[in-house]
């Protein structure tokens, strides 16, 4: 890794804060994802991290054809990019159900699927499919211990699967399992918990097969468990942060992805002899986690003290920093950071060559 890979040669006209992305590094991360997965057929990357058409296209150029997303806007962006297979990994409720139907009708070249974890949602979606006279593709969302969404493995989940299997308006694709609660830093501990969780899922799939279910795909995992799940057969893995990476996930040493998104910021004040203020407030970088918010790539080594809407205060006792100085930083959490920017600046060979729109940043594109 070149020590100056993130620098921009001419920053005079570069507005701060800005989010910079580096296509060569993104392509490297895509290639590593495919290699780890053993090919594209078992890979279903999530686009929630970037929400950018050009990054989708880089994946498509590498052969990726299955995708996962979290919002109707992200799903529509994938439809606009002519993705072949898209899983909306958020159970639609209320008005989202009608939007999902509109999505299918507007982009017939893309096969859309989504999740259900209860009888009520299944019946409502079945009714909509019956009205439109087409078949909906659905996965059952399994609660594998995260306790955020999903139905627990057991008789109720089996009854739901069999009921959906018998519904002429529904094609059950299989099981969706997100194990975002497994975040052990040590690969040994993470592998043990991951394997224990998967054993129950695999046993449930075998149970369904013994009940006459011939097809039951499994889409599972996120980025922290990707290096473990990608070694399994007959599953699809769905990493997302792996495309841009961040300082928070860099702690997983078994994952060799490159940081490909950097915050560009400036010193805007020096309120005391010990503190400096950067224009990296809540509106510019994800702030839902404890400090630090970023990892500075340039010589800013002090403790991050406080943050408000527009400001980040950092302890810095040296005299080397002046007001107006440029700094570069990796966000601790890239996914919600990207959503704070309408577009990102594209950097190649230390030069800004253009910008990419964060097209699915908003909750709605057209539908």
Automatic annotation (TrEMBL):
Family of the protein in this entry: Belongs to the DSD1 family.
CDD domains registered for this protein in UniProt: PLPDE_III_D-TA (cd06821)
InterPro entries assigned to the protein according to its UniProt record, in alphabetical order: Ala_racemase_N, D-amino_acid_metab_enzyme, D-ser_dehydrat-like_dom, D-ser_dehydrat-like_sf, PLP-binding_barrel
PANTHER family: D-SERINE DEHYDRATASE (PTHR28004:SF2), ZGC:162816-RELATED (PTHR28004)
Organism this protein belongs to: Spongiivirga citrea
Keywords linked to the UniProt accession: Lyase
SUPFAM superfamilies, A to Z: PLP-binding barrel
GO molecular function: D-serine ammonia-lyase activity
Protein name (Swiss-Prot/TrEMBL): D-TA family PLP-dependent enzyme
Domain D-serine dehydratase-like: 260-348
GO BP field: D-serine catabolic process
Pfam families documented for this protein: Ala_racemase_N, D-ser_dehydrat
């Amino acid at each position: 890794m070149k020590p100056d890979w993130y620098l921009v040669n001419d920053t005079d006209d570069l507005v701060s804060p800005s989010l910079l992305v580096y296509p060569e590094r993104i392509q490297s991360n895509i290639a590593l994802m495919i290699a780890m997965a053993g090919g594209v057929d078992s890979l279903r990357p999530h686009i929630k991290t970037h929400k950018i058409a050009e990054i989708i296209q880089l994946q498509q150029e590498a052969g990726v054809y299955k995708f996962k997303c979290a919002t109707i806007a992200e799903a529509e962006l994938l439809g606009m990019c002519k993705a072949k297979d898209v899983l909306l990994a958020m159970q639609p409720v209320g008005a989202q159900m009608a939007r999902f139907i509109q999505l299918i009708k507007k982009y017939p070249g893309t096969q859309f699927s989504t999740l259900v974890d209860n009888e009520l949602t299944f019946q409502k979606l079945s009714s909509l499919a019956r009205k439109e006279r087409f078949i909906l593709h659905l996965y059952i969302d399994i609660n594998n211990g995260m306790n955020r969404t999903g139905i627990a493995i057991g008789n109720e989940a089996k009854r739901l699967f069999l009921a959906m299997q018998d519904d002429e308006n529904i094609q059950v694709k299989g099981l969706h399992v997100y194990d975002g609660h497994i975040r052990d830093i040590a690969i040994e501990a993470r592998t043990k918990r991951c394997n224990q969780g998967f054993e129950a899922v695999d046993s449930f799939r075998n149970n369904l097969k013994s009940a006459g279910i011939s097809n039951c795909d499994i889409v599972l995992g996120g980025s922290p468990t990707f290096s473990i799940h990608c070694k399994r057969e007959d599953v699809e893995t769905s990493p997302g942060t792996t495309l841009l990476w961040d300082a928070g996930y860099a702690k997983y040493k078994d994952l060799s992805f490159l940081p490909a998104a950097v915050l560009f910021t400036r010193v805007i004040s020096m309120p005391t002899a010990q503190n400096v203020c950067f224009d990296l407030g809540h509106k510019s970088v994800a702030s839902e986690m404890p400090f630090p918010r970023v990892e500075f790539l340039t010589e800013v080594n002090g403790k991050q003290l406080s943050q408000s809407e527009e400001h980040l205060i950092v302890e810095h006792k040296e005299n080397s920093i002046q007001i107006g100085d440029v700094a570069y930083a990796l966000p601790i959490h890239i996914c919600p950071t990207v959503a704070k920017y309408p577009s990102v600046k594209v950097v190649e060979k230390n030069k800004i060559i253009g910008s990419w729109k964060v097209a699915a940043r908003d909750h709605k594109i057209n539908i």
